[in-house]
Amino acid sequence: MSTSTSIQFTLNGKAMSVEVEHHIHVVELLNRFQLKGARESCGQGLCGACTVLVDDLAVSGCLMPAFMLHGKSVETVENLSAINEPLHPIQEAFVDQGAFQCGFCTPGFVMMTKHLLALNPHPSDEEIRDFFAGNLCRCGTYPEIIAAVKQAAEKLHP
Ligand code: FES
Ligand code: FES
Fold first, then answer.
1. What are the contacts of 122-125 at 24+ separation with CB within 8 A?
2. Disulfide engineering: 61 pairs with which of 24, 27, 109, 122, CB 3.0-4.6 Å?
3. What is the pLDDT of residues 90-124, one digit of tens each?
4. Which class is domain 89-156?
5. Residue range(s) in the chain whose domain bears CATH number 3.10.20.30
6. Ligand 2 residue neighbourhood (C-beta within 6 Å)
């Protein structure tokens, strides 16, 4: 029985065709492309550090089997702004508000913010807290993260 599958998908706007083993998850596949923003921490869908957008929906890259990306579009934090280019308004807001310390959780929160603001252009504090219930920050920068989401909302949806 075959242990791998050929898939075609879009990664940060580029068409990809790869052979993936059935046991690997999305975050492991991304690492093979040197995309290290989404990182595996808990590996159980509990922390959000591995969050990426698949067809514009936030998913835990540590849980989704990579072969399920066939025919889908994946966006990672690396797509928001290239090196030496201006930051995306969400990234800018996280910097302005000091919404991170070690930064380990930040790519996950940034991609969750992108999903949230697409669904709800001006979320309340409570809606932000609810939406981020599955994302953990060991450094405890939650108040600053909420402020960053609100700043990004104002910039993206004035
Ligand atoms: S590493 Fe995926 S949710 Fe924690
Ligand atoms: S900034 Fe350190 S875990 Fe969130």
1. 122/153, 122/157, 123/149, 123/153
2. 27
3. 999 999 999 999 999 999 999 999 999 999 999 99
4. mainly alpha
5. 4-77
6. 100-106, 137-139, 141
